[in-house]
Design a protein that fits this description.
The chain is α/β, with parallel strands linked by helices and 747 residues long. The protein is 38% helix and 17% strand. It has 3 domains: 320 residues, NAD(P)-binding Rossmann-like Domain (Rossmann fold), CATH 3.40.50.720; 194 residues, Rossmann fold (3-Layer(aba) Sandwich); 172 residues, Glycogen Phosphorylase B (Rossmann fold), CATH 3.40.50. A 7-stranded parallel beta sheet has the order 3-2-1-4-5-6-10, with helices on both faces. Bound molecules: nicotinamide-adenine-dinucleotide. Nicotinamide-adenine-dinucleotide (NAD) binds next to helix 1, helix 4 and strand 5.
Length: 747
């Protein structure tokens, strides 16, 4: 691509490092808004609470054109992530002047220098169209004002030194290899989502809470403050037509003293600051002011005045401090108040988890969505899964474990520990009820079983009604449970209809009414049907995985035409026959299909079954058998074909990744998987290979694999016919239920 060619005129693939940070998250949203495809990379480092970063990027995460890789630039194989002609916005780094002195300097060299060198190397290897790099006004130190890009560079902090080094590295790659690097020098950025260590954020927080603020120096130091929206505009303009190798200042909007900016905040909040003065620490430049000729030539001069920009930041910050808002400190704004004043909203999720991993996986996805969206929420998850010890729960979620019980037949259960079933059931019922009373949640979400395992929820549901009038009790149902007549008979026999009527405020079906109307098929009476909502399918967020190392499970060397086939049997409890048949199918196709098949046995497979799958896998070329993976979504993302049982999560993950898919559904003891598989086949999203019935199962799977590969990924119209935004909608619904009661406070 030539330098003069505008690259914003057509959609491009943008790779944003530091995507979950303050500036990065705004940039991601702007790129998506403009119709670009975006890959975000962020290590969620602990420079400030990762929960805040998750919340920054939560809204963008739901966008279908956004992929978030939670990975460290110093570890990630970037060459695999990048594609030729990508536009890279390299914002990942360790910011902050004061903390760069002392022992933590290594964090700065790693994040700002080592990581930048890796980005440049990968960009060179993959021939990136452009790299826009976030440098800083700190490269100037105490330079004469206004600070000119071609003027002296004498950083006065270790942070400034790392930023200058990174800039110079970029310059070296431009000169040596023609890699088009455009460095932007940001001047004190502010606005919504500003980092909690930055001055305005600390000032607003303290003034709103009536606490003293610490001002370094006498407050007369001048800063060139730049609104984050203006910084994003400059980043986009630099990607379009910035001149490689030429740094550009991004500042010049509002040069004011610190004291003036504090006065603006005081006016917005309607409260005077209590000021404590401390001597200016080393590393802070006395004044900053950007020369703006280059920014002007780029057509990206700042537009937002400091009064308006600070109004945005104050409003955002007070919104995320419910306690403050209820005290009515925002002049002119109608404040609200939570029903229980001062407390964070609380959500309790329960799943009995006596068979498979489906319930736990769904609740984990919902819990993750909740803490991402709203980090101040208190989310507690009750689970009875035998896998709970090893399960990768999302950060910020409290876990309460129930003694595990496994299902051994229709309505027959057995404790995992050597204890009587009645003792374990009583203990579980007690833990659930006492957790409910301790947490006193705004919302209690029950997965799938309205009465819990063998009625264990009875006590808790009764207490919710008697003791917790403010708690909304919600039932989350899978898209499909079983054949309608079977469900109707079971529900009648167990008294479920009555419980739905009396104990549940709301029912959410994790599917689409157009595809299967669970409310009418299962005979939910009209009085309850009014409380039923369909959320769409719950597709998981890649942020649930710690890294994208899953890609490394696949053999690295790949010849043209090689295929990656992923075979998954969900939790694995009854998956052995399907996996064995799939290995046979792969073997029978060896003259047609080359590459690699990864077979995931699932953590719940019996050891003897697992040994058999491993034995058979070892005899067939190109087969790799693994027990489980903590990076399933990444494995799915890198596969060319997926062969799976028909469980909710596996199917939704494969469909969400828009992969050719063969579903081999279980048909007993329930028809649920078969019904789901048939729905997906009807939509053109999957081939079905039945495991039951006469004849050659492996042959059926092989035929379906060939058909699925031939058909390729589902066409856009078919893929769009399924609603995969369930996690977002369920999160919205639950958050709405915790929403504050609006109370007008006299201004
Ligand atoms: P931020 O801390 O909010 O964002 C940086 C993000 O980078 C964080 O989310 C962090 O987790 C991520 N990160 C750090 N090391 C990483 C690694 N090795 N791999 C992947 N991700 C990593 O900071 P910000 O204020 O949004 O700043 C963004 C960039 O702009 C930084 O490079 C900063 O130095 C630069 N900058 C910011 C300002 C400002 O006023 N905010 C001024 C000048 C320059």
């Amino acid at each position: 691509m030539s330098e003069s060619e505008g690259i914003d005129a057509r959609p491009y693939r943008a790779v944003v490092t530091g995507a979950a940070g303050f500036i990065g998250s705004h940039l991601v949203e702007a790129l998506l808004e403009l119709g670009h495809e975006v890959v975000g990379i962020d290590a969620f480092t602990s420079s400030y609470p990762p929960a805040l970063k998750r919340s920054n990027i939560a809204a963008a995460s739901a966008h279908p054109c956004f992929d978030l890789l939670p990975a460290d630039l110093n570890e990630l194989d970037l060459v695999e992530v990048l594609r030729p002609d990508d536009v890279i916005f390299h914002l990942g780094g360790q910011p902050g002047v004061r903390a760069s002195w002392g022992k933590d300097f290594v964090d700065y060299t790693r994040a700002n220098i080592d990581a930048t060198q890796r980005v440049l190397e990968a960009a060179r290897a993959r021939q990136a169209a452009r790299i826009v790099f976030a440098s800083s006004s700190s490269v100037y130190g105490d330079a004469p004002l206004p600070m000119r890009e071609d003027g002296p560079l004498h950083p006065v902090s270790p942070y400034g030194v790392t930023k200058l080094t990174a800039e110079l590295l970029g310059l070296v790659y431009w000169k040596a290899f023609g890699l088009p690097v455009v460095p932007l020098r940001f001047f004190s950025v502010y606005g919504p989502r500003q980092r909690p260590d930055m001055a305005f954020n600390r000032f607003i927080d303290a003034i709103a809470q009536g606490k003293p603020i610490v001002v370094f120096g006498d407050g007369s130091q001048r800063r060139d403050f730049t609104y984050v929206g203006d910084v994003v505009a400059a980043l986009l303009a630099a990607a379009a037509h910035g001149r490689p190798g030429e740094p550009i200042n991004v500042g010049g909007g509002s040069t004011v003293t610190l004291a003036q900016s504090i006065a603006i905040i005081e006016r917005r909040i309607g409260r005077k600051a209590l000021i404590e003065q401390n001597p200016a620490p080393p590393g802070d430049a006395r004044d900053t002011q950007a020369a703006t000729d280059r920014l002007h030539a780029l057509g990206a001069m700042p537009r937002v005045r400091i009064e308006d920009g600070l109004a945005q930041q104050v409003a955002w910050q007070l919104r995320s401090m419910p306690g403050q808002v209820s005290r009515g400190v925002v002049a002119g704004a109608p404040p609200t108040q939570r029903a229980r004043s001062g407390s964070a909203p609380r959500i309790l999720l329960y799943s009995h988890d006596t068979y498979g991993l489906g319930h736990l996986r769904r609740n984990t996805a919902i819990a993750h969505g909740l803490v991402q969206r709203s980090p101040e929420l208190e989310v507690t998850l009750l689970t009875g899964s035998p896998m709970a010890e090893q399960w990768p729960f999302p950060d910020g979620v409290s876990i309460v474990r129930l003694p595990p019980v496994v299902k051994v037949g229709a309505e027959e259960y057995q404790p995992v520990q050597a204890r009587s079933m009645s003792a374990v059931r009583a203990e579980r019922a007690g833990i659930i009820a006492s957790t409910l009373l301790r947490v006193r949640p705004d919302v209690f979400l029950v997965d799938h079983a309205p009465l819990g395992m063998k009625g264990e929820l009875g006590l808790a549901l009764k207490m919710a009604r008697e003791e917790l009038p403010d708690t909304r009790v919600v039932l989350g149902l899978r898209d499909v449970l079983d054949e309608p007549d079977v469900v109707r008979a079971t529900w009648s026999a167990q008294g479920v209809y009555q419980i739905l009527e009396t104990a549940y405020d709301q029912i959410i079906v994790y599917g689409s009414r157009e595809l299967f109307d669970a409310a009418s098929e299962y005979g939910i009476p009209d009085s309850v049907a009014r409380r039923v909502q369909f959320s769409g399918y719950l597709a998981k967020d890649r942020g649930l995985e710690q890294s994208i190392d899953g890609r490394e499970t696949w053999a690295q060397a790949r010849r043209a035409g090689d295929r990656r086939v992923l075979v998954m049997g969900g939790g694995g409890g009854d998956a052995a026959p399907m996996l064995l048949a799939a290995i046979q199918a792969w073997d029978s196709l060896r003259y047609l299909l080359h590459g690699e098949a990864v077979i995931v046995v699932g953590p719940l497979m019996a050891p003897a079954d697992r040994a058999e799958v491993e034995r058979m896998g070892s005899q067939v070329a190109g087969v790799q058998v693994i027990r489980s993976s903590t990076t399933m979504l990444s494995l799915v993302a890198a596969a060319d074909l997926i062969v799976s049982m028909g469980g909710y999560n596996s199917v939704v993950e494969a469909v969400a990744a828009r992969k050719p898919l063969v579903i081999c559904p279980r048909t007993a003891p329930r028809r649920e998987q078969l019904m789901r598989a048939e729905i997906m086949a009807r939509l053109g999203l999957a081939q079905v290979a039945r495991l039951d019935g006469d004849g050659d199962v492996a042959g059926r799977i092989a035929d379906a694999m060939v058909a699925a590969l031939k058909a390729g990924p589902p066409p856009a119209h078919a893929w769009r016919s399924i609603d995969l935004r369930g996690t977002e909608r369920v999160t919205d619904l639950l958050l709405e239920m915790t929403a504050p009661v609006s109370v007008q406070v006299a201004a």
